[in-house]
Each structure stands twice: as structure tokens, then as C-alpha cells.
Amino acid sequence: MKLFVGLGNPGEKYRRHRHNIGFMAVDRIADRHGFGPWRKKFSGLVSEGTLIGERVTLLKPETYMNDSGQSVGEAARFLKVPVADLYVFHDELDLAPGKIKVKAGGGNAGHNGLRSISAHLDNDYVRVRLGIGHPGSKDVVAHYVLNDFAKSEHAWLDPLLDAIAEAAPMLAKGDEARFLSDVALKTRPEKPTRSNESSEREPRHKAAPARSHPAGERVSKRQSALAENLKKWLGARKSGGDEG
User: What is the domain range of residue 176?
Assistant: First the structure.
């Protein structure tokens, strides 16, 4: 069995926060693979299902971020999940938006949710680090992570979550390298298609000026002759009138 944990804060006011991208990831996995309904357990919400024949429990701690370890430790011990089979999805300030890395063990980089899990369990669980970018100053980090993703960020966020959900079976299989390559492939920007070259290319030869049709030329000459005769007739009439 694998235990996939998404980190975040419970409640509607936090649902779209950058800090809740871990919740978003496991929600998308549950939806994509038809997991069971979420139910309260282990001081959190759990949903159960299978990925390529591997039983997987999804967990969203409801203890708030700083006490995530209480819920995760309770679930891991009850389900008898080895630390190596525990995958924690969390926001990562030190990765560019939309980037993703997977790492077993290591430091917590100031992430309170990870720090709490490490305090309740061995530190060697697997971190699925989901890049949200850094605001540029430590002073505004708390405000940054505890606010909604901007509308413009959904251009990379939604494709990333979809890719994670589609590639999740590879994590369940323990193939982290394949998981990362599948996510990278699915989130790769599409190359711009070349427009129709024939529409962009200048004509090789300029078109010759259109020639008048012979019938049109005859009509034009006839109209000119009539106009000239009328002009003469009016001139003669005027001249005769002046003389009488």
C-alpha cells in the first residue's frame, strides 16, 4: 500500500491558496482515478482506491498545516505504511512555478508541514515538491502562500495538476523517474505551428496589369465619340444663336 498525503489547510477560505496545492494534487488524483468518497479519519479526510493494481490511500490532514504530522503519523502507523511508501505533496517556494521534483528525505526548507511530519515520523519519506515560485522577499512569504493563486497562474497550475493525476500510477508503482518524465512530457509547452507558407510568401512574379476586354474598349470609344459630337453640336447651336 502507498499513502499519498496532500498538505494544506482545511476550510473554504484556504481552498485556493498557494499553500494548498498539495490538497489540490490529491483531489485531482481522486477525481481522475475514481477513488472512493472522502471520509473523516486520522484527524483528516481519506479517500481510497487503486492505481495499476496498487492500493493507495489519499490523506488530507485537517489539523492545519503546522500540525500535519499528527494526522500523517496516525495514518501511517494504523495502515502500517513504511516511510519509503509515504509520498507528501507540498508547495515549494524554491522551485519556479509549475516545476516539480521528487526527493526522499532531506531538509524541510522552513516548511512547517514537513517539519511536523518529520517530528512524528522518520525523515526519509518522499517529498513531491510542487513549485509555486518565491515572492522575492522573506517578509512577504506568509502573505504570498496564504493567498489565492492569481488567475494568470492557472495557465500552468491546471495542466500541472492534470499531469500529476495522469502520472500518479507511476508513483504507486515506485517509479519516480517515470512519474517525473511523464509530468514533464504532459506539461511541455506546445511548439507554435507554422502558418501556411504559401499565404506568407510573396508572389514570385507580380501580376501583370489587367487588360481591358475588346468589347469594353469599343464601348468606351463609342461613348467618347458621342460626347465629342454632342460638344460640337452644342457649340454650333450656341454660335448660331448669337449671330441671329
Answer: 2-186
